[in-house]
Amino acid sequence: MTVAVSPDACPTLVLNADYRPLSYYPLSLWSWQDAIKAIFLDRVNVISHYDRQVRSPTFEMRLPSVVCLKTYVKPSRNPAFTRFNVFLRDRFSCQYCGTREELTFDHVTPRSRGGQTTWENVVAACSPCNLRKGGHMPADCGMWPAQPPFQPSVHDLHRNGRAFPPNYLHDSWLDYLYWDSELEP
């Protein structure tokens, strides 16, 4: 298949069968190749197109900008414990000083004192605060997290993710994305 205009800058927004994005942060996007494959496998409906096309000697197709899954994918109720999801839960802010620079994660009850690597014991922390707290308990060093660590729901992460819209939003996506302007990153 030859390409008339490079479509690499044409990602496809993927919506669930209920017309909501599968994920807000990161935004659920497919490459144009994955979107076209899903169209041919009859797994999606095309909602909107770009003005760009892909062509072969016997075939021509406009690139999809928004697709909707034909089968509803039930979102997981319990998100995976990952460094990224901890940062997203904590809104990419150090829970001790509020900075957004040099984020790491900190065990509120240090591992050296029996603390586990769980949602309820880990918070986002900048490197200077993490080093200052070290292996101390919060009461020993006067460093308490701004919010107690907790296991977020997928809804919590989606809500927080909407506070950080991506740098690029195609016009055809805007009717399906709900960025909360009242939340400040």
Please characterize this protein's 3D structure:
This protein is an alpha+beta fold and 185 residues long. It folds into 2 domains: 69 residues, no CATH class; 68 residues, DNA Binding (I), subunit A (Orthogonal Bundle), CATH 1.10.30. It is 19% helix and 23% strand. The protein is built from 5 helices and 7 strands. The strands form 2 sheets. A 5-stranded mixed β-sheet has the order 1-4-5-2-3. It has a two-stranded antiparallel sheet with strand order 6-7. A hairpin with a 2-residue loop joins strand 4 and strand 5. The longest helix is centred in the N-terminal third of the chain and has 9 residues.
State the total count of DSSP E strands.
Answer: 7
| Unreliably modeled segments | 1-5, 180-185
CA radius of gyration is 21 Å
* Distance between the first and last residues' Cα: 42 Å
Total helices: the number is 5
Strand percentage? 15-25%
Global structural class: alpha+beta
Number of domains: 2
**Coarse shape:** elongated
* Largest beta-sheet characterization: 5 strands, mixed
Give the topology string: H per helix, E per strand: EEEHEEHEEHHH
On the 0 to 100 scale, the average pLDDT is 89
For the largest sheet, list the strands in their spatial order: 1-4-5-2-3
Proportion in helices:
10-25%
Organism: Hansschlegelia quercus
InterPro entries: HNH (IPR002711), HNH_nuc (IPR003615), NA-targeting_endonuclease (IPR052892)
GO molecular function: endonuclease activity
Protein name: HNH endonuclease
